[in-house]
Amino acid sequence: MLSTARSAQQAQHADGVTEDIEDVDVVVVGAGIAGLTAARRLTGAGLSVAVLEAEPHIGGRHATGWADGFRLDRVGRLLTLAPEELRALPGLGGVVPRPFAPGVLVHTDGRYARWGAPHPRARRGAFTVARALASAPRHPAASLDQARLGASLVRLAATPTQRLLARPERTAREALTGRLPARTVQTVLRPLLAALLADPDLAVSSRQADLALRAFARGRVSVPEGGAAAVPERLAALLPPGTVRTGVRVTAVSVARVDTAEHGPVGCRAVVLATGARSAAALLPGLRVPAYHPVTVVHHTAPVAPTADPTLLLESDPGGPVAHTAVMSAVDPTRAPAGRPLITSTVLGTPPDDTERRVRKHLAALYGTSTDEWELLALHHTRDAFLATPPAHDPCRSVRLLAGLYVCGDHRAAGTLRSTLASGERAADAVLADLGLRPAAVEEAGEDAA
Fold it and tell me: Count of CB atoms within 10 A of residue 90's CB?
């Protein structure tokens, strides 16, 4: 049975006695990373803040569940930040990135090709460098494609952010096919961007795609040590005790109070709505809900790990169902008990009815081993997992609805970790300005490529 660790700061004690929630300066609705970031900035300015979260855990889509000693992410978002960039983000200095082996292994028509340099610590397993290179295409045209892609990634890795953002904005498919052969885009870049941005159709903005590919070219793809929840847990730990209250459902909001199902009204001077887009629109009818990409994450364990190589394995066949998979315990050993492998796989789009059976069958083909004795640990489907960011998407939507009422989250930003954190900071600064307080100095966010 999957359970999620409860926050130490919550409205209900273990003995079942429920605390009253006193009136505060600011109520933040939602304990995801945007809401926690806003709360940190507001409490740092000396305001009293209550963060109210309907779920029994913090983090939203960055939550991590537990099952039999395994740490299991619900969405499985990959980081594309260098360690120094992650440490520079406000409040996240203690988050440790666990990198995948540089490059990826791409499965195409029963053959494997490794793109990128072999990881110096990669150990022998089902997917050694030798096997990948031995199965790589030997046709001169394919070798030329690899050389062109390599040269393109080298140039991209050296391109400054402002130059990337100044390029004409198109869909990723249009931009990439203008630079590289269509077969390279379809068999390598499409599955790679599907893993990084959850957009297998390559309808994402070419600027977002270039930022993600540049991070890949620089060898920055990783996951947070201990699971995705390490990010919100770090932010929550910086708040005053008692600030975050889980298991509190907000039923209505206004500029001077919120109504809760469990505690009645809570008075305040301002409200920051930091929920997901659909929940925000339910509380504020008329608020636009942008498009999202659905994702299903499937976690298995096995008697024996199918490989010890911490490589991200991509499927180039869009029919899937698995888009990408990895032995996550080889990437981040803290996510699994000693001696037990954790295999994490991602299905994009609406999953089939028999998802687990089809995923297990596909994994047997991808890893070249029987999966009959593999054990399903968890299967999570998230309808609004990744924000869709087509060309002309506004990455900096207004967070101030009116004086006293603000909204933040990935739907007000570019969908990346960095931009979502920044939306929380922008909302907090708007609150401080409207209350006549001087906002704290804005810390530089840098490149928007989380």
Answer: 20
